[in-house]
Write a structure and sequence with these properties.
The protein is mainly alpha-helical. The chain has helices at residues 2-19, 39-58, 74-79, 85-95, 111-140, 164-186, 197-201, 205-223, 230-238, 245-257, 266-274, 281-289, 295-303, 313-316; strands spanning 24-29, 32-38, 63-64, 99-100, 143-145, 226-228. It folds into 2 domains: 2-65 and 104-234, Up-down Bundle (Fumarase C, Chain A, domain 2); 241-303, Orthogonal Bundle (Ribonucleotide Reductase Protein R1, domain 1), CATH 1.10.40.30. The chain contains 14 helices and 6 strands. The strands form 3 sheets. It has a two-stranded antiparallel sheet with strand order 1-2. The chain has a two-stranded parallel sheet with strand order 3-4. Strands 5-6 form a two-stranded antiparallel ribbon.
């Protein structure tokens, strides 16, 4: 039940990544304006992360044991000394679709469960990161929320549409991971050859997965109720021409290396121009025209805008795997 729900979210994210691969937006590293990216590339990052963890989850080995009260086959061997009890055990366990564990105490050691729950918890945290990012993009105006007929956006303020699906998902993911982390930490320990602490804790496996399922349902619904505000993206890019300082100082370094410039410290030069204040296109063009660099380099820089300074962002979306058949 959980994997198909995760796949539905990955598919939704994949569609958004492909749809918005060319929609340039201002990146924000440390919450500050940074080298532009595209919204599609950012969704593709999440798809790629989830696909990797999903493959690990699907490849989990489910172990089983059948070897007696302390894992020695003692009673079995006494009952029938002629039987090949290891072969009988292996055949029985593998017939159930499990991997045979030949070395156990009274219980199968639960290491595979710890691995599985850690991976699901990891997926939860990637999804939590997605929720906080989308919530932030909504607060910045990068996404508008599509009104749902009959829904209450806020208990007291009629104008609002609160991003409750992403908030609910965050809370459920946190609860799910807390339980899964606890399961992974405690199930690997059993005093000497057996104690019953695992019996109580394993009763919460369904609860842990249930919270994650609720989150996945909320995320899928939330992603279907947002619309990209390309005007807001364009306005933010146009208000932050200083992000091209990286491009200019990097080109200057390349020109110095090629012997076409004698500028001693390109970084300091751009820092003095841009740090702590806004500049516009005209100031940057005038600055570039006065630089000691070749004409081709000047032409490339003068033609650059924040909206076109997205590198290979659009092509990078091609790295996400297509939906499974």
């Amino acid at each position: 039940m959980w994997l198909p729900a995760l796949d539905a979210v990955i598919d939704e994210l994949r569609m958004l990544a492909l749809a918005h691969r060319d929609d340039a937006m201002l990146a924000h590293t440390h919450g500050q304006p940074a080298t532009p990216t595209t919204m599609g590339k950012e969704f593709a990052v999440t798809v790629h992360r989830l696909q990797r963890v999903r493959a690990q989850i699907e490849a989990t080995e489910y172990l089983g044991k059948f070897s007696g009260a302390t894992g020695t086959f003692a009673a079995d061997l006494v009952a029938d000394p002629s039987a090949d009890w290891q072969a009988v055990s292996r055949g029985f366990v593998t017939s159930l679709g499990l991997t045979w564990n030949p070395l156990t105490t009274q219980i199968e050691s639960h290491d595979w469960q710890a691995e599985l729950y850690n991976r699901i918890s990891h997926a939860n945290r990637i999804l939590h990161n997605l929720c906080t990012d989308v919530w932030t993009y909504i607060s910045m105006g990068y996404f508008t929320q599509i009104p749902v007929a009959g829904a209450t956006g806020s208990s007291t303020m009629p104008h609002k549409i609160n991003p409750i699906r992403f908030e609910n998902a965050e809370a459920n993911l946190e609860l799910s991971s807390a339980l899964l982390d606890s399961l992974a930490a405690t199930l690997v320990t059993s005093r000497l050859q057996r104690d019953l602490t695992d019996s109580t804790t394993q009763r919460n496996i369904g609860v842990a997965l249930g919270h994650s399922l609720l989150a996945l349902d909320n995320i899928k619904g939330g992603l279907g109720q947002i619309s990209l505000n390309t005007d807001a993206l364009a306005a933010d890019l146009d208000a932050n021409w200083e992000v091209l300082a990286e491009a200019i100082q990097t080109v200057v370094r390349a020109e110095v290396t090629a012997g076409r410039s004698s500028i001693a410290d390109p970084y300091a030069l751009l820092k003095d121009l841009t740090r702590g204040h806004r500049i516009g296109q005209a100031e940057l063009v005038a600055f570039v025209q006065g630089l000691d660099i070749g004409d081709d380099a000047k032409a490339r820089l003068v033609a650059l805008t924040p909206a076109t300074y997205t590198g290979l962002a659009s092509q990078l979306v091609d790295h996400i795997r297509p939906a499974a058949d």
